[in-house]
Structure formats: C-alpha cells, structure tokens
Amino acid sequence: MKKDTLIVHAGRHPEDQHGAVNPPVYHVSTVTYPTVAALEAGAKKPFEGVRYGRYGTPTTFALEEAVAALEGGWRSIATSSGLGAIAGALVAYLKAGDHLLMVDTVYHPTRKFCDGMLARFGVETTYYDPRIGVGIDGLMRPNTRVVFCEAPGSLTFEMQDIPAIAQVARERGVVTMMDNTWGTPLFFKPFAHGVDVSIQAATKYIVGHADAMLGLITTTEEHWANVKAAVAAFGYSAGSEECYLGHRGLRTLSVRLRQHQETGLRLAEWLAARPEVAAVMHPALPDDPGHALWKRDFEGACGLFGVTLKPTSKAAVDAFLDGLEYFALGYSWGGYESLIIPTSGQVVRTATRWEPAGPTLRIHAGLEDIEDLKADLEEGFARLRAAR
Ligand SMILES: *Cc1c(COP(=O)(O)O)cnc(C)c1O
Hints:
This protein is of the alpha/beta class and 388 residues long. Helix content is 37%, strand content 15%. It contains 13 helices and 12 strands.
C-alpha cells in the first residue's frame, strides 16, 4: 500500500461501527464484562485484557493503530498532550541515578521537564550538540539509559544524524527516542532510521486544525509494554473527543502537508532574498547547513521554519509583527492557519552557542494563498523600515 492509500485506510474498521466511515467518539470509563471468567482472563493481560477508559477506548485504538502504521512502528499510545507523551516515554526508562543524553535544541518544555522533574527524581541530563553524530559515543556513561533526539531542532532548525546516533546507542544498549513532530509520520520514518520510541505532538499537524491537545508515542514491539505501563501508571490518557479529532485530522495530513511544504518553501526562498533578512533556517533550502542530512533522511518538509532579520530595533520588529493580517501571533503550529512569533531571547542553549545576526522569528506557513501571505509580509517590512 502506498503512503496516501495507507493514510486513508489504516486503523479504519467501518464494519465494526455500523458502516460509519469514522469511529464514533466513545465516552467511556467503565467497560463491562459478561462473566467472571472473562473478567479473570482479562486481568491476566495487562492493558489489553483489563478494559477501562483510562487505558483507551475504541476511538483511541483506531487513532493508535493508524499512527503506528504510518510511522512504521509496532503500536502507538495516545496521551493527553505532546509534552505528556515526552514525559511518559522518558519516565518509562529513567530512574534515580540514571543519565540522559538530551539534544541541546530540544523543545523548551522538554528541557524544563529534564532540569526540573527528572533532576528532582535523581536523573542527570547532559545536553549535546545536535551535530554530534557518532561523537555521541564520547558522552555515553555506564548509567546512560536514553538518548533523546529532535530534528530539526526547535526554533533554530538544526538537523541531526539520527541513524548514526541510533547506531551508537544500540551498540551500547541505550534507548533512542525522537520527537518527530516536525517530520510528522509522513516525512520522517523513525523506525527505519534506528529509533526505538517516537513521539508526536499530535496537537500540531495530526489534529491539524488548532483545536485539540494530543500526544502519541509509537514504539517497536520490544518497547511497547514498558512505555504503556509508564503512561498507564501516571494516568496520562487522552480524551476520546481529542482522539476523534486526531483521527479525523490524520486522514487529510498528506494533502495538507503538500501545501504547507510548498508554501513554506516558497515563503522561505522569498524571505531569504529580502534585504531585511540575514538568514532563513529551513533544512529543505539547499544552502542550509542541515540540508544534506534532510535530503538523505526526510521525504519532505512541513511549513515551520525560522528567520533571522538583519540587526534592527525591537520597536521595528514589533511594528512588523503587530500589523500582520494573516499571520497571527500565537504559540503552537500545524493548524491550517499561518502563524508567526518572535523568538529572540527565547532560545536556551547550554551545549552550543546560539548567536544569531539579528532578531529571530518563527513562521508557520498555513494554507492561505501565498500571494496574500507575501503581500502581508511585504507591508510588514514597510512598517519595519519606517520604525527603525
Ligand atoms: C508543541 C510541541 C510539543 C508539545 O506538544 P503539546 O501537545 O503542546 O504538549 C513537543 N514537541 C515539539 C517539537 C513541539 O513543537
């Protein structure tokens, strides 16, 4: 089955739902058993036999089945948010005295989880340069349990050599995890590149309409039970309504991404040629430092990228942003609408240096007409020049 066929058919069983195309939203806490024998048989099979709303509903299972098939993993676990998926995956492996290798360009709340919660529970985190590749070997300790990757990096978009890192980790018996939100289940295949546990902030492109919080952890067969046990122990379950929205959003992910990719790339190229712009951070651009890795390992690019402006005042950047009509100022991304945020002063790096030439922005290219988006930015640049 080709990718676009799989995205339409994976995890769908209309015959079990009176023929309905989509699974309904099952509102469930209690699941009843017909007999004592069935109840006792269930108790012998953790999370599969024990049926209870917290472990998932048929709506959850449909979403999990579809995402696992698309990412190329064994099974998925839905959680209440992307950050919940990251926390659940990490705590599945780490205990007091353990060591974690975390990429320096990680999504900032993941860093906060490591430096706050994990540190409090006696887990030590070492941040590493995203460009480290096989050099990750030099940071391994006897107590290293997990190497965590995210590519491209949050806000600054550095690529990572995932297969090289995963190979070193495998040789040392260390688990490789990856936050694959930018790549989505369509543009990066984590399991084909050696990753053991993959995380999606489904809030972004899978839900795709900026209207639900949802996370997914997908694993190899070897790792599923361990991660499921941790997620279940913390009670990080996803709501059925959210799983329904994720399941519905997923079906159009491929066509949406084609447009996000195209508009994002064309905007990135247009911005790179602007006199007000110092650099564009987008691994699909041929002169991006991460381009070779992106080209080797990824099958596409989403609509999220970074921009560094030439040095100018904060007032000028604010004037640029404040009057934008189609680019809303807002966190998160992956919905159908264009977004922009200033990222100056928000980038925290401890293993690498981040010294942009000027103020930085992050853009999410939505599904609007590109000519309208360019005109909107063009007017913004006029306000920037007038204010500086
Ligand atoms: C947004 C985001 C998350 C967190 O997802 P939430 O659903 O908002 O908790 C994790 N990783 C990346 C890369 C993200 O962009």
